[in-house]
Specification:
Order of helices and strands of chain A: HHHHHHHEHEHEEHEHEHE
Helix content of chain A: 40-55%
Radius of gyration of chain B: 12 Å
Number of strands of chain B: 0
Distance between the termini of chain B: 9 Å
Number of domains of chain A: 2
Structural class of chain B: mainly alpha
Strand content of chain B: under 5%
Oligomer: heterodimer
Shape of chain A: globular
Radius of gyration of chain A: 19 Å
Order of helices and strands of chain B: HHHH
CATH topology of the largest domain in chain A: Rossmann fold
Largest sheet of chain B: none
Strand order of the largest sheet of chain A: 3-2-1-4-5-7-6
CATH superfamily of chain B: ACP-like
CATH class of the largest domain in chain A: Alpha Beta
CATH superfamily of the largest domain in chain A: Vaccinia Virus protein VP39
Largest interface: A-B, 22 and 18 residues
Chain lengths: 308, 83
């Protein structure tokens, strides 16, 4: 166990210490992860934890939320390594367990934001998003599955878009996204709509009407990822910007669509009418891509797409 | 399964870990932790636990896998499952 480096704020220290007491092996992982964050990222992490406390959530509770994700992912990793498949394969199997379970979803949302800072591949995908997000683009922004709200908050703060629409199937996600946006961008609230519904059922969206569409970590949660991609292709303007993230061989409690290779995923993306402008393919932390593939470990991917 | 002494089990765990981490001279002790062994991260931990399950013919619970703090505790869990 190492001492905390300079720049690690008191709330991060408290969170890491609380998690590390429960899971000593994970403490080493968290120390390594923190050492790779920039000062700006450490500040954002500390600010997020202040936001949690502002919402009445103790850091002990946030630690519990993060441990929920760590332990559930561990169980699913073991299942996957033993059985070579995800435990669930359709929405019905996970809906009651996760999406309709208010208590679980609340924990899930807070825990997920912590992974955005502590899981190196999630950090890299966040950096990739910030690097490619077209900051001077005006017009309409759509995010499918804003989840914890962090990508949407970045877009609200850092683009010139005129209005923002977030669509999510989870009430807990909508509430979390609303809370983060109200806290960090209250001046933008009149330009933001959050809609609780299934994206494929949102029939009032006009074709070719969005300038930026973002969908982070959704495709592995749905039965028909190609339907989602085709619908995005209908909605994005011909010169619009699309950003998508997902994962390969990445077991989690509510992952139901399994891609076993990046090729199979990228073929689907192209078949749905996109060209891949910029790919990011991240092997398992601490492994080469060759080792990752050989050991059936997870690959995280992010893509900047355009209409083909 | 024949009864093994604690030393037998520690020896077998050490041999399995040496092979898993490709470190032929690796000798684990009760007080050894993951931080003491290069490459012993969370996924390597899961993989090693699964190899030990095969070696000793039982299954760890998820809670056991995430909570074990050192090799000594690991050996204690194996004894618990195999005695």
């Amino acid at each position: 166990m190492t001492d905390f480096q300079p720049g690690v704020g008191p709330k991060i220290r408290e969170l890491i210490t609380a998690v590390g007491e429960e899971t000593p092996l994970h403490r080493d992982f968290m120390d390594r992860s923190l050492s790779q964050l920039t000062d700006e990222e450490l500040k954002r992490f500390e600010t997020f934890l202040e936001f949690c406390e502002h919402r009445g959530k103790t850091l002990g509770y946030v630690a519990t939320c993060y441990l929920t994700i760590v332990n559930d992912t561990l169980a699913e990793q073991m299942y996957f390594l033993r059985n070579k498949k995800y435990r669930a394969s359709n929405y019905a199997e996970v809906a009651d367990l996760v999406y309709h379970n208010r208590d679980y979803m609340d924990r899930y949302m807070y825990g997920l934001v912590v992974t955005a800072f502590l899981w190196p591949n999630h950090v890299e995908m966040g950096r990739f998003f910030r690097e490619h997000l077209p900051r001077d683009r005006k017009g309409r922004y759509l995010e499918i599955g804003p989840g914890h709200g962090y990508y949407m908050m970045t877009a609200v703060a850092e683009t010139e878009c005129d209005d923002f629409l977030g669509i999510d199937i989870s009430e807990a996600s909508i509430n979390q996204t609303r809370a983060i946006l109200d806290h960090f961008a209250p001046e933008a609230s009149r330009r933001i709509e959050l809609r609780l519904c299934d994206f494929l059922d949102a029939s009032t969206l006009e074709p070719a009407s969005f300038d930026i569409i973002v969908m982070g970590e959704v495709l592995e949660h749905v039965e028909q990822p190609d339907a989602f991609l085709r619908r995005i292709n209908e909605l994005i303007r011909p010169d619009g910007f699309v950003f998508v993230t997902t994962c390969i061989n990445a077991p989690a409690i509510d992952h139901i669509y399994l891609w076993r290779t990046t090729d199979s995923l990228e073929d689907m993306i192209r078949d749905c009418g996109f060209e891949i402008r910029a790919p990011l393919r991240l092997p398992y932390e601490g492994r080469t891509m060759e080792q990752t593939i050989k050991q059936d470990l997870s690959i995280n991917v992010a893509y900047v797409l355009a209409k083909a | 399964m024949a009864q093994h002494t604690r030393e037998d089990i520690l020896q077998k765990v050490s041999e399995t870990a040496a092979d898993h981490f490709e470190t032929p001279n690796l000798k684990l002790r009760d007080e050894t932790t993951a931080a003491d062994v290069e490459g012993w991260d969370s996924i390597a931990h899961i993989q090693l636990m699964m190899r030990l399950e095969e070696e000793f013919d039982f299954r760890f619970s998820t809670a056991e896998i995430s909570s074990v703090r050192n090799v000594g505790e690991l050996v204690d869990r194996i004894i618990h499952h195999t005695s």
